[in-house]
Design goal:
Blueprint: H1 2-29, H2 37-44, H3 58-67, H4 79-90, E1 100-104, H5 125-129, H6 148-152, E2 158-161, E3 164-167, H7 177-181, E4 187-191, E5 196-198, H8 207-212, H9 222-226, E6 232-235, E7 238-241, H10 251-255, E8 261-263
Helix pairs in contact: 2-3, 2-4
Length: 266
């Protein structure tokens, strides 16, 4: 009786050992040799796995940077310090690193852009922006203000004030998570050194802007004509600044009748 009970268990145990040995042999035979630099590079990465580098986590980025597919400065969380350490490990020149931060191109908080309807739906920006009129706010281009970007940010760098997303640049690592989830595409990554910025994304002009927002770009092109450096151009009906050309003179800020061009204090 005991033998009849033990026999199946012994057979299963034997099969398990055989299959385990087979798997081990196959794994050893087809093992892909790991670059000895991989653990060194992986150790200097912050481990946030935020995807800001464009790869699926720190392991994927480490492999890509070793193979030359990714830039040394691709780790936006680690910044220049990590880029320097990776360059030392790989024995290559570090290159140029430019810090980028998220910027909300909208001034439409509750004191400037009012609600045109009562919204009782899901408090999520994507769902709200899909209702007729592109959301409850009067401006169809502006921030919905329900904080989907706040939930996406792993670093606590963005919050909502008066239904308008606001970025804390001292915490922002430039990973782009908030950019990816914003249904209105009003959050962009900009060079941190670009301190002159246009805080609007609307595409209406003149009186049509005033009907929906008291702090929107009028599309008047006065800033374009004022800028002697040629750093401002129109993107549709809203002004945009080229940080490579901007000399931070502030003339556009002084001339803007809508007061939507600001100098950000970093």
């Amino acid at each position: 009786m005991l033998i009849e009970i033990l026999t199946p268990f012994l057979l299963l145990a034997g099969l398990g050992i055989v299959f385990g040995l087979c798997i081990g042999v196959v794994a050893k035979k087809f093992e892909v040799p790991q670059d000895p630099k991989f653990p060194l590079v992986r150790d200097v990465l912050p481990g946030a796995n935020c995807g800001g580098c464009g790869y699926a986590g720190c392991d994927a980025f480490a492999k890509a940077v070793i193979s030359g597919e990714a830039s040394l400065s691709g780790c936006v969380v680690g910044g220049e310090a990590v880029a320097h350490k990776v360059a030392e490990i790989l024995g290559v020149e570090e290159g140029h690193f430019e810090k980028k931060v998220a910027y909300v191109q909208c001034s439409g908080d509750t004191s400037h852009a009012h609600d045109k309807m009562r919204y009782d739906g899901v408090k999520h920006c994507l769902e709200a922006s899909m209702v007729p009129g592109a959301g409850p706010k009067s401006c169809p281009y502006g921030c919905v203000g329900f904080g989907t970007c706040v939930s996406a940010c792993k670093f606590g760098a963005i919050h909502v004030e008066n239904r308008l997303a606001v970025v804390d640049e001292s915490k922002c690592v430039g990973c782009g998570a908030c950019v990816n989830v914003c249904p209105k595409n009003i959050i962009r990554l900009v060079p941190k050194r670009q301190t002159v910025r246009v805080q609007c994304s609307g595409q209406d002009r003149g009186k049509d802007v005033r009907l929906v927002c008291e702090a929107g770009c009028l599309g008047c092109t006065l800033c374009v004509r004022t800028c002697e450096a040629g750093a401002i151009k129109m993107e549709g009906n809203v002004a945009r600044i080229d940080p490579a050309k901007c000399v931070l003179c502030g003339k556009c800020v002084a001339k803007c009748p809508a007061k939507v061009i600001h100098i950000i204090e970093n």
